[in-house]
Structures
1.
Amino acid sequence: MEHKHSEKKMNVRLKIWRQEGPKTPGKFEEFSLSDILTDMSFLEMLDVLNEKLIHEGKRPVEYESDCREGICGTCSLMISGQAHGPNRGATTCQLYMRSFDNNELITIEPWRAKSFPVIRDLVTDRSSFDRIISAGGYVSVKTGPHADANAILVAKDLSDRAMDAAACIGCGACVAACPNASASLFTSAKITQFALLPQGHPERSRRAIRMVDQMDKEGFGSCSNLQECEAACPKKISIQNITIMKQEYLKAAIAADFRAGMGSADGGA
Amino acid sequence: MVPFKRLFSSSLGRKYLMGASGLALVLFILVHLLGNLTFYSHNGDATNAYSAKLHSLGLLLVVAEWGLFAVIILHIYMAFQVTYRSKVARPIGYDSLKSKGGPTKSNVTTRNMIYTGIVLLVFLIIHLKQFRFGPDLEDGYTATVNGVMVDDVYRVGVETFQNVGWVAFYVFSMFFLGFHFRHGFWSMFQSLGALNPRWSKPIHAMGLIIAILMAVGFLGIPIYLHVTQGGVQ
Amino acid sequence: MSDETIKTTTGGLNSGVPGGPLAQKWDNYKANMKLVNPANKRKYSVIVVGTGLAGGAAAASLAELGYNVKAFCVQDSARRAHSIAAQGGINAAKSYPNDGDSVWRLFYDTIKGGDYRAREGNVYRLAQNSTAIIDQCVAQGIPFAREYSGELANRSFGGAQVSRTFYARGQTGQQLLLGAYSALMKEVDKGKVELYTYHEMLDVVMVDGKCRGIITRDLKTGKIERHAADVVILGTGGYGRIYFLSTNAMNSNTTAIWRAHKKGALFGNPCYVQIHPTCIPVSGSHQAKLTLMSESLRNDGRVWVPKKKEDCTKDPKSIAEADRDYFLERKYPSFGNLVPRDVASRNAKEMCDEGRGVGETGRAVYLDFKDVIKRDGKAAVEERYGNLFDMYHEITNENPYEVPMRIYPAVHYTMGGLWVDYSLMTTLPGLFCSGEANFSDHGANRLGASALMQGLSDGYFVLPYTVTNYLGTHSQELLKKVETSHPEFEKAEKEVRAGIDGLLERGKAGKRTPTEIYRDLGLVMWEYVGMARTEAGLKTAIQKIKELQNDFDTNLKLTGDDQFNKNLESAGRLGDFLELGALMAQDALARTESCGGHFRVESQTPEGEAKRDDEHFAYVAAWEYKGKNNSAVLHKEQLIFENVKPSVRSYK
């Protein structure tokens, strides 16, 4: 954790992306604020700006946040070129003004990707992630009685690794930070969670193929193994998940071909 | 249904092919370097003997060359595909994009594999023109190895590297080979899904070592020939 | 048996709890309910508003049964519902640790924890369903914590003496929500669920006495839409954000249930609010949100304040052991730091009122991990609470491995909500309400790790039965479809449109932003309708809320248009919060006893504990809306205890 600023108050200069709607072109607009408390969160600083704008009769800067404790994955700002700002393992809402210098110029942009179109200002539409999950990010059990929970034993280390992958909050920082706008980390985290757990095994081939195909269909870029997604991920999700996704997909793609030959219907194959 | 269609049509498939073709190229370049170490001997006999041995393979050599050509074409095609799709995936770029450090492997060279690759492609064309399709027996470049008349590849090398310009071009290109290799070596394992956390770091480190050995091994040849054979006419 | 016949009268309102012994009530219900055959299920449509545990689980389960489901949420994705923020765990009477747990004991702990203000039948069903929830979640691939044996791990939680809490690190809510979300997305893929994200429900539509649809606003485009169905379920969460500062998410609101209330649904126990003891204290007036530190921290952390006032400003590490007052351990030797939330919160407040609070504002107590670090080592503590410690460090700039945490209570959960009967149906036929949005299972105080249990019980294991029973009972009428061109839809849409336009119109002229009025409302609620309530204070609150309502009606400042506009959303929700605030104060004023989270200063024991008045107040207060300028009317559902005897709740 970095704490650059020790005084209580600071001035900030902001360069913020403004865009009326999905189809209108956007541009940067500059603002400055004085007497911002260093203990304020970054989003509270934006709240101060918005209150000021409303009083001036101007349209406030639209951005999103919800839980403000780093778990819901709603907040999503590119802050001076870094997804969720300078601190590792933290979301935008967990960023405090003490991480910035007095009078520092802070550039705020939306996540930029074709698959995350801008709705307004800093708000983007991330429904492409929902569609990737919808393609197979689940175990297809129905609600109802199941075997006793302890009838399924899972080795602690596998369960822990599955949890590491399941910690993904779906914020999209991986896509935003990737020079190629690839969604590999997001997609792989879900594939890996279920590849590691016995519950996920019956439909692992179908899942890998359908989720990767959906990811491609949404228009995300390719993974170039730069690991910048892991660096930007607020939950520090490892690219090891991408390795596992590649194994799962390769196995599934080959298996699908063989099964197709045997007349077996493999979803998506 | 096209067999293994997904290998060509999906983003992951393209990366498997990038990785696999990269692996083939790495193996080729390693063998090529081992052969080229003969240039470091005091005269051309070892080099020409090695060259003659290769030519004696006949049909096998033809197959290997065409195979290599196909692998290179595949590697290039996939590279352009991957790059193109990534550009399309972000139509509006950032005002600034800064790495967050930590585990990242993002830097100027890793982000620009396509450009280091293009330099290598240009190099490859020139290099093939100079050596593979350069002067041979018919042009009078002959040498005798064990009493048999063969191509004098060694002389081609010596003559080429009398020119400081060519020496500089080769040295420059080999730096790019090093950069390309540095990321490519580890990356090909990752693309093929062949890494686990325990191997990841050692392989990344190995990539650096091999990249340096390879670049230095190759770029030493023009310099060595220029320095030791520069005066011989 | 129709849903009319399974109701038994319990006072003024019909709770519909089936007859028979406690343990067989739910089985009796299921054995006698009406069914809908598979071919007919395809003819019914169900609207589910909210995609958290209670809404998402219901939407997925009903779609699996074959109903056509439309699911709505205000967030950009169904996965963002605030259930995601629950940290500590979910209770279930699995009794895996072999420590004496049972369905009965979970039932008993919950009834007692709720200070005998919940319905026996509902709570017993909740305890029964708890075990099936764990089986369901494990089958979905939720990575619960496990032992080396490969079996599930358990931990203890406040208000219980057994270890029955299942958890997934400090992210249990997230994992359970993602389970429900995945199930929902699976049905979206199959075409059985139509998902509407960025949609806010602004009214319910009643046709011929039955709820047949809703009016929504598309938050991206501003478009007002009509949606018709045969059943509407509200799983829209609690209203804790009425306090402005709370641990609830920024988008959490009361609008859906409040609009339904205004259409005629009774509102149960609005004054029951849970104040969570372990939150990071308020640091300044700029703050938008408070952060909860999981209650599980009280398993190992010890709560204390200095014995002497003059020590309060000193470095806590310099205060000798003898000069520390571990007040929870001192006052409640058998439960110690694990007393229920309301007790822990009230005691922290008391210490601060005595002048022994710590930190810059003097409104905080210490939560100290020194002893556990010494006993189990830093690594063990890091494994258990690492993410919570990091979060604390990030926010406060203090390292809790070195310095004790400072904590203070904050609003966290609302036990009150729309009144529902045993089938989770509100007083509006066809309108159901599940999870935190209803008033049902927690009485006057909720035990830790019970919210997730209730949300999932309602969504996975109650609504699929009770909704089916409703549809089966009223099939004749419901198979006649209502079109969205019906005059009732027309009328409702017009009103909603007028409301939005009105906000934007008067927003041009006023002076005060929604946030400014909202902050003031929060302060009034916290001061007068917070942890300690008095008659005079509650009357003051009603007066002050009236003034704020006037401000809102005549002096609101808004900019922007009706397309994506967070402040417009906030203004609309604030309007509903203002009306609800007045009702909360009215309810708190009427309930002159203390119970659970509702502490009336006038009603306490000599030791300062909450004093219940079972003779006069063993009822659910269900309020009927009578128009903006009229006082709400109180209906009572008498609570009948046949199986447990209400006693003085003691954790000593």
2.
Amino acid sequence: MPKVVTNDNPYLPHMGTIREIIQETPNIKTFRIVLDDPEEMAAFRFEPGQVGQLSVFGVGESTFVINSPPTRREYLQFSVMKTGEVTRALHRLSEGDPIGVRAPLGNSFPVDELKGKDILFVGGGIGMAPLRTLLLTMADRREEFGDITVIYGARSPQDLCYRYEFDEWKAAGVNLILTVDREFPGWEERVGFVPTVLAEEAPSPFNRVAITCGPPIMIKFVLAGLKELGYEDDQILTTLERRMKCGIGLCGRCNIGDTYVCVDGPVFSNTQLRRMVSEL
Amino acid sequence: MEQAFFLADAELQEALAGLSAQADVWVPASDARKPGLVRFRRFQPGLTVRLDARSLVSAKEVLFPRSETLLRFTKEKDLSVPAGHRIHLDDARTVRPVVVFGCRPCDARGFLTFDPVFTKGPYRDPYYSERREKTTFVSLVCRDADAACFCSAVGSGPADPEGSDAQLIPVDGGYVLRPVTERGAALLEPIGRTAAPEQIREAQDVLDQVGRETVGEGSLTTLAEAFRARFQDPAFWHAHIDKCLSCGLCTFVCPTCYCFTITDEARGLNGERIRSWDACMFPHFTLEASGHNPRPSKVERYRNRVGHKFSYFPARYGQVACCGCGRCVRHCPVSVDIRAVVRDLPAQEEAHA
């Protein structure tokens, strides 16, 4: 039966189908989704950093970043950590199941402003998801950017997402530094918290922009560490998360003062963060 | 007053019945079981219309129902795939013309807070906007402001026509109906007789007299900066809000509070996605699945409510998000008074210290 669309309704999801599910870590799954209407899928455009609302009908919606890059458009990829009601329901879905998608929503990374610059990604756990979309965009347009260094950490080796494509990242000329919180048998990369590894690596702030996402406690110390290394506020980008319902600036939930994370974000510079009321 | 009609008290029911032929007509009304409870109800002949009384809840629910279906979904077996199913979505809706008759000017003006958010964007809310386009507001010039009212302090007043399509002006033996907009004029023409010159004069006198009245002290419209300065002053917020019960009544009776939640309800293969009123004063409103809550206590929540109305909303839309109806003050079970909080924002002397 065709979908009834009576008008331009921002609450009405596009219907899609889950093509592939990847078990990233014990509690994170990645969903590769194709919109059912081929024309809709072909016309779908987004920028790195934009998010979408995934629907499990009968349970509800939640917001996730589109972590595939706009340069690769055969599917839309979302990574979901099993945490609450909707994410639990998402984890129960199978390949071939229908799913609702309201996307793209929110702002994006200022890709054009990053051209010609060296880039430092600092990610923790599921926080690698929004960085991945930008990282792969840059990998696909490699000559437009300078050095790309990634510091990515998780509690343990099995908590790192996207392990199966680390070699592809390196092959694209990404300086990938991996770390886990403590020693594990067979682990040969770095050991230590992300902010510690950042201080040890000390990538120069000269002509560089740092982009960070991860748990709040990691972000707090990464921001302090970057400042220590001489990064200015406008050289630091991050993405924020808030509980959201509508995703379109109406329902009143995700505001930080007069800033709405859903429509003004999720991407903010540290300059913008400092201007906000302190209600993180 | 160029054009005006007269409606006698005795003809009110007949006029409302006439209007009801083309539209859903919402009026303040009470019923025999609870004569003290006045709220907006859809008119039907015999309803006890209470233009004399202020309603407990505003007319907000006429355009923004307490609960409404955004879309319906149906699961269907997909015979082309083993164990497969499809989801069929349907957001069809019908919107009837609506008349809000006899609300106070503050209630009509309350929707001016909704309009820039729900009809302008960046995303237009079709449910609200479609209803809004078909709604006509006839407000009653208000002659019984009480101690909780403060419409003048937010740039309005008891005879404010802004947000109304027509005004009801009480005169001897009935009302003079004065169109404010073309839509108002079109609505009134069939239901009233042309007012006599002396009726128009009397109505003009009432308008002039009520228009000169000041309801509420001072001005609460220029305190955005003071709010920012107070933001990091926990003692100030504790002093004003420690008694708050987090019951959320202030938001439910408020004509300008529009926070909502969206939930799914399903039974078997069918279900609905539903929008319902929610309140920033509830602890779970911003509670994240991780357990983190950016507004963990009532201090942060009430600060956000005050900030939204008198600082954040003005920053975004150039007007305060308050119409001064006084309901939150009048009905708060522990007498939190938002006027006092906002007035104290710039105070230099620390009364609470």
3.
Amino acid sequence: MTGSQRRVVVVSAGLSEPSSTRLLADRLAAATVADLHARGVAASAETVELRPLAHAVVDAMLTGFATGELADVLDRLYAADAIVISTPLFTTTYSGLLKSFLDVLDRDALSGVPVLLGATGGTARHSLALEYSLRPLLTYLRADVVPTSVFAATDDWAAGEGDDGGGLAGRIARAGRELAERVAARGPAAVHDPFASVADFEDLLPGG
Amino acid sequence: MQFGIFSVGDVTPDPRTGAVPGDTARVRAMLTIARHADEAGLDVFATGEHHNPPFVPSSPTTMLGYLAGVTKNIVLSTATTLITTNDPVRLAEEYAMLQVISDGRTDLMLGRGNTGPVYPWFGQDIRQGIPLAVENYALLRRLWTEDVVDWEGKFRTPLQGFTSTPRPLDGVPPFVWHGSIRSPEIAEQAAYYGDGFFHNNIFWPLHHTRQMVRFYRQRYEHHGHGPADTAIVGLGGQVFMRKDSQKAWDEFRPYFDNAPVYGHGPSMEDFTRETPLTVGSPQQVIDRYAAMREDVGDYQRQLFLMDHAGLPLKTVLEQIDLLAGEVVPVLRREAEAARPAHVPAGPPSHAERVAAHRDATASASDTADTADTAGTTAGSLA
């Protein structure tokens, strides 16, 4: 293992307990960490469940600032080398709780950060929901979203790999590899400091 | 150290009675509150400037001009004056007029304003918020310090041979604060000019306040105005007091639960823990606010929000009495005892600024024959 330990923060937006969304999150995280280890990069993952933070997220939307456990979670997220987001699909799109959570982040906090997307849903009819809903949102935040996102329908949990490797396990492995590649190619995450980017006032004046 | 109150002038139903004051009653309540604060011995009354309901104070210098005539000692200020949507020519004229009328009991706090629709009402565009604030303030300073101004910029018609009248009192403009809740750029602007920085932290946790004030202090020193601990800092505050702290909690809770901004959100328990809101006895308010200096250093102005969320006028006046009678004398004594001698006790008064201006002018003329006087501190108003 070389270099400093890379940290993968996993955000799981499932509401039930136990949750298939959490199960998917754990498998995506494990695939990423395993692939980093195979590349000789030290890495670990920690998972954040949004459900216990739901009230704090709403408070932060109303007051404009995060407190307590949510504030700690945001600090860890801002310092992450990579982020895995796993959400259930509700009425065709990612959960409202996840959207509210993303709404309270500092706008520049995810800029350039490698992100892997996962979602769970009832049937394969929602397979592209991540592509038309969550991916554009992360693109807006200028996150570096890997090409493979993983949608797991109920059927997927029972299906085998088949002949072409297109089953759930194969997709998870590919997505984890893509995220690991981004992390390995990128230096350790810089400290997020909102005061670092303030221009000297001289430069704001005409002729400055 | 100065202690005072600031008002946003919100028209909010009283959640206990459902009563809603009309605009006229609310404006008159603000006048009564300001006069009462002066009589009670508070140092500052500051009014917001808003151009949309449910807020009434659209015309600060009209209100403050009246108050200048009916108050004796209190400093009349703003929280905030919109440097983006007001024409800097009008600001130069109106606040110089107020300064003359109040005989120097005037300062003002500039802010950008964050309500997008307000900008086009005054012919501006919120996307230009920061460039507007930068250009307008640079022009405002020139209009106050130079008798005849030739000027051309991006956002208003050029000026040729323009003189803003009345000229500032004794040739020295009012002291300026820059107010910001979350924009470090504004702290940087205040630091660049050596002006005051007011951080309205009433809805924010202390760790954020600490960062903003530290940043301003560092930049103040960087720009050559003196050591970081001599920078001029003001903070917001929010309290509700009764002698019996449980009574304070019971009485204030419906106002908290239904208040604009934070109502229907976090519990009062959470909010009082995380923000400067203090509900309880005068002693609890003293303990909380006396400790602020441990996080932000010795500071010069503390303003409290007292008339909001539908609190009845009678209650607000009682709160002012408690603040001025029981809290401020102790806080003032403690701040004075803790303050190192080289740190200013308050923002510079008009008399101090006149004296500083005289000294600067005298030393400039002493050296005029031998040195390039352009080397004086870039941002100094004096």
4.
Amino acid sequence: MSSLELLSIAIIMLYVLGTVCIAVGLLARRDRLKRLSQWLTLAGFALHTVMLGLSMQGQTWQILEKAYYFRMLSWSLLLIYFFVWWRLRLEFLGLTASPVALVFYVSSFMLADVQSKLPPAMSGLFFGLHIGTLFLSFSLMTMACGAGMLFLYMDRKLKHKTPLSGFDRDLPALSAFDKVNHLAVMAGFPLFTLGMVSGFVWARIAWGKVLSWDPKEIISLVVWCMFAVLFHQRLALGWRGRKTAVMAIWIFAVCVFSLLGVNFLMTTHHSFNPQ
Amino acid sequence: MTRNPEQAPRATRPADHKTHPTKHRVHMDQEIYLIGLNHRTASVEVRERFALTDCTVLEQGVVPTGDGISEVVILSTCNRVEIMAVGNGPGVPARVLDCWAAARGQKHRDLEPFVYVHKGIDAVRHLFSVASSLDSMVVGEPQILGQLKDAYRKAVGRNATRVVLNRLLHKAFSVAKRVRTETAVASSAVSISYAAVELAKRIFGEMSQYKAMLVGAGEMAELAATHLLNSGIREIMVANRTFERGLQLARQFKGEAVLFQDLFVRLAEADIIISSTGAHEPIIRARDIKDVLKRRKNRPMFFIDIAVPRDIDPDVNNLDNVYLYDIDDLKEVVEENMAQRREEAAKARAIVEEEAETFARWLKSLDLQPTIVDLLRRSERIAQDELARTMKRIGPVDDATREALQAMLCAIVKKVNHEPITFLKRRFHEEEAGTRYIDITRRMFNLDCDDVPEDAHSDRKHHA
């Protein structure tokens, strides 16, 4: 176990360094620091992957430490970040990905030694369908939120004709931020829907009822509705730019509330509280 | 890569001696002079009268080398004439002025009041600021460096450059590069049409998939359209009240002319709209654009209104995904950029100053005695470093052994350097060759501790 702890410390150190480097690199406009941050985060991600693999050994999907979920979420965030970076080459998203991943990774320690029992029915399959899809979808929305904030920032500057600073000049064009939103919505909504539906099917199989009016279920339905509106407006009405950026930020905010607020503070069968 | 150095078309090769009937030795007391005029010292009429851009004049070599002047490079653009000359004796500027005036069929005294003469480090500093575009009318404009490179190439072709100007010009190019990369002096647009293109890039990024439309055909719109084409825009449409003029302009940009009454139908295709009609009332209003936006599924639009009175209702800017800049907004952007450039220019001047001093130091060292000292010092340093390293490895030794080792190293340093030094001393007293061999020695042993990039002289290697 201590080797895993050591690994965890190394991962955290790498993520912290990655976050600091990208922040300083962007603000002080140092390309070398930005690249360094990329490598540090990638190294952290590699170790993270190894760690997830090692701690899965001898475990089943059914009984996992709750901390494991947050580590997985943190991992999927970076996975999506590297995916988006590979597709669109937007390094500034590291400013969103690294710190958020770090926060989730560190908060996983609050849950150390708390075990979570999944409903036994087909736990392997539903683990992927329900949890995997929702985590990926959340990661995509995190990217959309980061891109959305920068979109609003630049949009405001261009509309109000405010002089651009050096930092602003280094940012990519407005259309690049919108591309992130497009990608996140187009891939994120189907994933989220799949995650929701499989969750209800799983509940039907395991507990015999689709909806048990659990706070988590209700807030997830709210998120799904918001997501559906965004998806529809983007696809059918061609919404883009400011409105979609604002919606993505709201969806992300509600998701974070659902992940941290609901799971810790309210009684729900998704609870992370020690039972 | 491997070739006979004798056949190398090196710029530093000495001229044939028959074209150079110099009787006296030329080294040591050589001085760099820079004689010139620019947009600050001379009005445009004067600049026209004394411009040396005429090829035939230049071919003959306005200022012939020889007779006290050993190297000459002439730069002549519409804003300046700069003549760099290396020679000895205080008569150099007067001779250059004579030749210059004579080349344009004018009198020496007509030219003199507009001319500045820099000498030594002042000349170096001036050339470096010219190359880095700090002396330009629009600070930071990039053309001057290309023009200087051309001027240098021509001088090399005339065989009018040697050690000093070769190094000076190469240094000037690298200083210009350093200024460009280390300061933001040239990084922002300082013309209205270019500022518009920069803004378009902020919104759209890569321009190759976007279309622009000119509404009205003013001169400024034409200029902006040219900039847009240069930055790779896909197509330019022209909507003009008189269709003929629109057609003509469209042909010029290889674009499409659009009937003016179809403006709002075709506007849905355009991402960037440059408007410059002479209309007294706004012709494009927010409610028209709302409809256009619906048809183009809210893809962003960038309106540039350079007409006075304005063509586009300012309300348009309040629509989502629409950005409107009028002439005053663009002027403000340009002014902002200008102020930023001036700030950066101070940083650039510090770089120029530093590099000029380094160059002046090199120029002073381009003599026999300092080179011998540097050569010996270099070997001595290497020997002492190695001795220290060896001592560390073999542990403590008695004084006798240490002294023996020291003596051995001393002897090696002396003997290894003996032949090169004798060679240098002998050559130094030959005509012409002096500075050249000193320079080669300094470069061969890197006595000036220059950073030589890996790709240095790659242009020459390919042609070998």
